[in-house]
# Entry
Amino acid sequence: MKKKFLGLICAVCCFLSPLRADEGMLIPLVIKAFESDMQARGMKLTAEQIYSVNQASLKDAILQFGGGCTAELVSSQGLLLTNHHCGYSQIQSHSSLEHDYLKNGFWAKDKKDELANPGLTAMRIVRIEDVTSLVLTNASGKNDQAIINQNIANLVKKAVEGTHFEAEVKAFDYGNAYYLMVKEVFKDIRFVGTPPNSIGKFGGDTDNWVWPRHTGDFSVFRIYVGKDNKPAPYAADNIPYTPIQYLNISFKDRKEGDFTMVYGFPGVTEQHVVSEYLKFIVERERPARIAMRDESLEAIGKGMKSSDLIRIQYSAKQASIANAWKKWIGQVEGLKNLDGVTVKQKYEAAYKAEAGTKPEWKKYADALDSLNHWVKINAMKEFRYSMGVEYFAVGPEFFKLIKSSNDLFNANKVLTPEQIEAEKNKLLASARYFFKNYNPDVDKAIFSALTERYQKEEATYNKNWNLVKVAELTKNIYTSSIYTDSSRFYKFVRSFSQKSLKKLAKDPGYAMYQTYYPCFVDEVIPAYKKYQSKISSLMQIYVEGKYVMFPKDKHWPDANSTLRITYGQLEGSSPVDGMAYTEHTTLDGILAKNATGNPDFELLPRMVELAQARNYGAYGQDGELWVCFTGSNHTTGGNSGSPVLDENGHLMGLNFDRSWESTMSDYLFDPDRCRNIVVDIRYVLWVMDIYSGAKHLVDEMNLIKTPSGR
# Structure
């Protein structure tokens, strides 16, 4: 078994070696195999400086922020940089009409002014181990889940024994490989500063996923720890974290062709999906989800324009919904322009032809045929699931309040008087936060539009679905339900007893939810899981066939929120005939966009004054102030906030987006079109120092100004 395991490692490295620098998301553990190629492209680091478990390395400065973004340490005092949109929910939660940090920005003048964020975490990878052979020990095969799960549990327990670390084992390539991730999770992350929305969200939905870009997409946090420098829950006397590694700042001039490396936690890619699935995504699933979000965004947009309070309440929600919405629009357009389904079909024809050359490879062709057939006849199971997610998880907000009240309002659970009182207090606390950011008129508009659309879709597949009169139901819920009015809700909770459950059953919001949500939970979700389980087992064989039959092709494991590296160069693009994009934008472009009068390009007076005066301080280059630049690095969601590093491993900027033409890269990567978008670190520091007067934060960092990186 050991020999087979070592052979697999060698084979994987060989498979990966021909990989182009601008495609693929590499596991840091195998970065040694790419050291020579990276150095040939200009890198001056060694693999050991990038990833090591025996000494401090760049990986120790890279953290997963909040579970869905990336951040990087940039000072010896635990200072953390990430994107503005990654910290947006924290910025919004600290904002009010009296302290409108969304509109005006915020900068803590001293550490005592830095703001706590309950529940926010930042995670550092301690080490990564290939444990494939250990996970499969004594297993009858790759799908012997009982043995595999037990082996994983044993590995995790052993990995963290006697430490303060956490660990998990994650499957790669649909269970063809497994890696152990040992993690250090920090639990006291404080908000340090943010530019105003007119910088951090400059361009709004108009520019989202678009190049040229001029968005100062950054925010600043700090890690606090106990006196022993180890993670600890929030406490007033916690101290700033002293990291074992932090990033120096690349302050030298940039030019097209410079080496770039992105180090972060990309979320999800699906490069291996078959042609029928891609067709389903392009023609059915994405358009339907886009239409659902069209409705929500229209309702939220009207509300936000009507009052500053609603703008503050819904800024983070609107940004979250809109981000995927516009990405999906670009994704569909890009896949159509590339004729992605045909690209997949041509590859599949070659795959089947190769599988026909050896009898033992027939299983690979069979798996491919089964995948396309399974998707073709069962894709509606995923469609129903996607629609349910859009409706119950993303749609009307009072659904969330109903879910959070289940521990108290549960007829199948008999509570003691003491337990009832405890649950009341817990529910009232969460409800206060809910209603702080809730507007019933906005929610009413969302409910009306989405219920109309959702029930028509669901009735297509569910013959038992009872179509309701949406207008009448909407009126009843928003005029009398306890869930759509804070006064009604607080009164009901405070006076709650077991007898109140009979009254609750008549509540129109609760009754509606209890009628339709169980169908989603008891019917749609199990059917979707069964559908996905079949796909996963077939994909395991299909992907194995790629490695076995095409050892010289480009192979890399799909992103799965684990630490990855991608490298390329600073460069522009020509995504369509007759169009050429330069590699960077400047402050001049901000003024030009502002002059159009589009509200997404609105600026506060200070930005106009500084830009017109060309007051760049020490942060300019050749009479310009770079704002953003593009690179040929393969990124996806989760890479938001990732450091973009130069040849010396110094911080050039923060990755925050892809171009419109690149959003298809989750399924198909085109090196001629796909570009990641980066906010230049010099612009970030200019905003902190010159614009905001927060030079004390810049002074914490180590700025490297010489071309040699010294």
User: Anything to note?
Assistant: The two ends are 47 Å apart (CA to CA). The chain has a mean pLDDT of 93. The chain has 24 helices and 19 strands. Residues 275-541 form one domain.
